[in-house]
Amino acid sequence: MIFMSLAAIQGDALLFRAFVAVVFIGMIAALMYDLLRGGKYEFYRSEMRWRMSMFGGSGIQKPPGSLVFGAFVTDVLGARPLMECRSETGRWSSHLMMEWGFLLTVLVAVIRFFFYPAFAPLAPLNPLAVISNLGFAMMLLGLLWYLFLRVNVVYERNSVTRFTPADRFLFGMFAYSATAVLYEVVYYISPGGFSFIFMILYALGTFYFFLSAPWSKFSHIFYKGAYNVQQRILQSQGLVHTPPPASVSYIKRRE
Q1: Which of 17, 30, 10 is nearest to 220 (CA)?
Q2: pLDDT tens digits for 198-211?
């Protein structure tokens, strides 16, 4: 009887929609808190006032849509700045895998919110389940790859398992993706009450990942993308007078 009740909770549409809504609203609130608390918005306004006084102009003109779209595709979805800075191919690839994996899981969550509202995983061969699993797999693979590329590991020769405050975002991503995969596997094996425990772990991992913006690098997902697009717009309007990235790097690894 208890197992049947727990299974019903996992299939409850209202509970799932409330969970997604809380995560979304909480994420927006966390991002706004991070934007205002650390003075990031005020710094942005100060920088724009400086650019106006330094290079002239009455303000940023409305850019053509093609410029914004092109910057979004190449700089955000394609992570072009990492390649322009002569970044290692592995770092660029791991970033892309984590980014695209994250976007796929969010896309599936949005679709499920309207059409398949339930915590219970979809059938394994369902197209949405395939896309979601691909996204989580990309996140995990990109994350595990990036663990060996972190600065404190590559350049400071620290242990890969060393945890620093800068790794909170990676831990949140791991909690979000790993618990989702575990919950799905356990649910397929035993869809009764035992899988309810892993549903709770998945919910906690999701909360931690999305609501930890003020204390992790989660906000970097949005700030960096917006910054890259803004830089392309400012460059097109003559408000950026900085040289392009150097073609030669003088940073040497420790032997």
Answers
A1: 30
A2: 999 999 999 999 99
Smallest CA-to-CA distance from 121 within 46, 199, 217, 36 is with 199
Burial class (CB in 10 A: 0-12, 13-18, 19+), 176: buried
List, in order, residues 6 or more apart from 182 with CB less than 8 Å away.
Answer: 198, 201, 202
> Which of 104, 112, 160 has the alpha carbon at shortest distance from 136?
104
User: For residue 248, is it within any domain?
Assistant: no
What is the domain extent for residue 107? 2-236
Please indicate, yes or no, if residue 249 is contained in any of the structural domains: no
Structural domains of the chain, count: 1
Residue 91 included in any domain: yes
Q: Domain for residue 52, yes or no?
A: yes
Q: How far is CA 148 from CA 122, 136, 160, in A?
A: 34, 19, 6
Give residue for tokens 């909770």: 9
For residue range 188-247, list pLDDT tens digits in order: 988 777 888 899 999 999 999 999 888 888 887 777 777 777 777 777 766 666 666 666
- What's the pTM? 0.79
Measured CA to CA, the distance from residue 66 to residue 69 in angstroms comes to 5
